[in-house]
Queue: 4 jobs
Job 1
Amino acid sequence: MRAAARPYRVPPGAVVTLAFVDDVAMRELNRRFRRKDKTTDVLSFGDALPPDVRGTEAALRLVPDPDGVIRLGDVVVSAAQAARQARRRRWPLASEVAFLAAHGVLHLLGFDDRTEAGYREMLALGRQAVAAAHQHRLNR
């Protein structure tokens, strides 16, 4: 999540809440907030941004709450869907969860995958974030 946010100058103390839910809860969230009656892998909940604001420009709009904490938003991952996708992609569950968490953060920063171009961009950015996080862990 940090690796996904880092290129956009998100303040280092910014908080993202990460929650794991089962398919039933994810389906309900997806139905309630996106009007799609099916489970999905990841959902993000943050402040609404204008359609043309993303990345660094979105990060510049972050302001501390009255308690001084900068809250980027919430990312919800379906643990079961992540496990299914990891098996299908033939990579470790931890890599799939890292990718989904990064994907969620990118959504909080205004990136959108509703178009083919947006999907490809987010796929590449998510993979870059996972690779950067993996490299960071190796260098410690």
Job 2
Amino acid sequence: MTHKGGKYLPHRVGKITTAIAAAALVSAMGLGTASVAAASVVTINWETMWSGATLQLLNKMVQQFEKTHPGIHVTESAITGTQSTTTAKLLSSIAAGDPPDVFTEWWPVLGEFAADGDILPMNQYLTGQYSGFEKWEWPVSVQGGSYKGSLYAVPMSMNSFALYYNKQILAKAGIMSPPTTLAQLDADAAKEWVISHGRLSQLGFFPDTDGNSFLFYTPYFGATNCVTSAGKYDYENCKGAQTEMDWIATFSKYPYAQVTALQAAEGTIAGGNTDLFTGAKAGFILSGPWEGAQNVPVANPALEGKFGVVPFPGPVPGPSTLGQGNFNIIPKGSSHPAQAFEFIAWLAGYNNAAFTASIDPIGGWVPAGPSVTKAPAYQKWLKSNPYLSSFLPAMSNPHTVAPLLSPTESQLFAAMDTATANVLQKLMTPEQALKYIDQQGNS
């Protein structure tokens, strides 16, 4: 193997040496040149958790990578399921000594993987042409993939969130413009709930839909990483967290069971691409670019042109957002970690801005670094869809942060979900909920 800045360069082996070796192999073993060429190609395995249309998008990415990197072949496969099932399968393959070379992870387990040694740090590859890689990323992209000062994960896309609003629902409720303050959002949303004969058919806004709960609103309250100097979670004594949970509690007047039932029914439509907002059953929703780029065109094309997006109007100066993403990692036991990193950096758009800029709009993705957004294809997408203007500014806002990676982050996130649901059902007070989050997150 020849390494230069962590990059595997099979095509840079000396031409004379290669020719002599190939000739000797052909002469001694009767091999054809095709066999010799095949022997020089490294195969890496990429495993993701995507399905449906996104898999077709990944196929295009793999084809382009192989076209521009003839020394590396990529096979791809997918595992789907819950956090526990997909994580269990990955850890099982690592324990068996047969892991994929690259795995795309979006569950809150990166800190646990890093702490347990289940994934490899990438710092050794940040040399040569990759020496400026971390500066190339959004700062929040680096933060979201770093554990104890080492880079363990690189996003192929980042999640940026903003507030979608349905223009028709707002107009029907007599609302002339989208909200600019949290109080205005609450007042506007209250006008949009439709409950007839005890049955819910439309809602305004609810802080526990589309997989969102307490965590996703933390950046707008300055409460994403409430930790002590000793590294312990301390949401109970975090002013922003207290304000946020008190706000969530104001929604307990709405029928929680009916909201979740309506959401579950809507989610079965159009292959899972429909949520309450896409189905025109909610006036507002906190979501990312994929809502307008993928979900609406697939599940409800009639909604196109009839929605808008504004920064979420939280108490923290905006536009800020929760810095999360679809992170690629190198599992322990990878057969070709250097080539895996080369593939991961390429997927992120590093030295690949033009192609990535043509792919990200299809997925409704925010790239790992700002240079991709400046490429012509991405700029064209932005100019053609004015609603996207609320997403990119949030990526460089100082209030945009990623949840700190820790060995117990999955317990923390699960506790936040449970606490949110319990507050909305009046099973916990806001104070009890925050105490519960700390107990579970620090266990």
Job 3
Amino acid sequence: MPKAGKRTKSSGLMNSPFGRVSVVLGALALVCLGCGHPASVKECEEIADRVTELELKSSPVGLEPETAKEQLERTRSWVKESQLKSCVGRRITDAAMQCVRAAKQAQDITDRCFR
């Protein structure tokens, strides 16, 4: 058992779907300002869903279909309430969306699709 206050590999916001979605949508804000098109609500929701899906696949929680479905719905609600406004309208390229769709891990989206 880890010591009090010590962060384990699986602890912290970055290792939760909420944290990863927040980082990805924040990174979207930094994507090339002079290229692409304004991100739509549908695209922002797709990005959030894909990140959450990949995070759940790599987590023991994602192995149970009902739990994974509940987590996906909670994340969708959270994104709509807190993150969607900062994503919609930001510049995004078709290549970035293709990268999101092809990513094998959530980390790929942060590291490759929006850099």
Job 4
Amino acid sequence: MLVVVGVVVACSGVLPVGNAAAKSAAAKSSACARVLGGESVSGPTNTVAWKVGIGSRIGVFDDVPGKTLRPTTWVAPKDAPWLVVLAHPRAEANRCWLQVRLPWRPNTAAGWINAKLVVVEKTKWRIDVSTARRTLTLFEAGKAVRTVSVVVGKPSTPTPAGLFAVAWAVRWNPNDFLGSWVLELTAHSNALQQFDGGNGLVGIHGRGGASLRDPLGSAASHGCIRVANDSIDWLVHTVGQSRLPGTPVQVS
């Protein structure tokens, strides 16, 4: 558990006069094409994922809004600078909307944001964590680059399963319990609402001090995924500290 703190494309074509449905479909397609530069944005696949950079406080909607824009809530860079995209974009009222994983409870929290208000980027990286095998695998464009043994949550405080994303990548003290790096996730413990003064945030971190007592390959943590310092150093160096936020993390 942690206590750490576009290119414009023109769409042209000939539409039958009076074909309202076709005109509507073309308008919706153009709304997202203008913002996304014609890119085939979607939820994470085996080979690629999309993420959005949050530059300022923006509205979040439970569903794609119509003409009336009344946000359900707000998300800001302090919550997470990058969020992973969960689905294909949708157009409504001449705006393009993207569904993203939100960095708070519940772990399935998702919402729609205006694509024009964020930076949209593609990432070839994905992290998979298997709690059964107690392993972490880094994938690049669908190919496993390296698999390492990890410590996962014990039965009373299991590591939550689901699709998450890296929220922050923070350099830490190699000799501290959290080891050399802390990758805060958008995941939260389902067993602990609070832990050691924090809100039950789950992350991937190194090992040092007392955390070395639990051997790699064991289920002994409060929900976090512990990785050997040399392994997490390699992971951060390979992906890049600045590119890690928004990287999808699948825990099963």
